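Worked problem 6 (solution included).
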Amino acid sequence: MDINMASKLYKENSLMTLSPKKFILWLLEESLKALEKGKEAIKYKDIAEQNNQLQITQQLILEIIPLINEGIDGGKQLILLIEYVHRGLIEANIDSDLTVLKELEAVLGELKSAWEET
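Solution. The predicted structure is:
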């Protein structure tokens, strides 16, 4: 087994053993990283990289929804917030809109901070 395959398997196994709370935190952290890369791509007018990074961000935040229990206090509102961010990412990607991306980055950052406190 080559080193890249071993590294990939280790990462996959590490993620599978995370608690739902830690997995959501990881998803938020990774989505913020991809969002930052998407913003940079817009600045450099690299449309392919912009699209790639913003689609990664979309996929990461959508992974949060199945982990949320709608029955808990605030669960439905959290899902609506994630859906709002998802729609905003699509629109910002189409329009290459850094202003919208900065707003969404702030929302995700606040969500991440709140999640760390729980």
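Discussion: The chain has a mean pLDDT of 89.
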